[in-house]
Amino acid sequence: MGGGPENSVSMIEAISKIEQLTGKKLNWTYVDENRKGDHICYISDLRKFQSHYPNWQLTKSLDDILKEIVAAESSRTAASSISSR
User: Fold this and answer.
1) Which one, out of 8, 19, 24, 85, has a CA that is 20 to 30 A from the CA of 77?
2) What is the CATH number of the domain that holds 48?
3) Contact present, 11 and 28 (Cβ < 8 Å)
């Protein structure tokens, strides 16, 4: 469904945020070419959904979600290195 304007981010912004969270530089390449089917920009308008479900609200910010992803990847990497010993 998307997270509305407050939880929208470009891939370049997401990479920058993840680099800040991890303190590591990610290995990525920018290709100035649209992928088939990509939207130039997409931000969900949540007003209709919220009008049908007035008690619903976003519970996680974009930063919270990215922190969870980084933590999960750190846990997965740590578990993988322990099991390979």
Assistant:
1) 8
2) 3.90.25.10
3) no
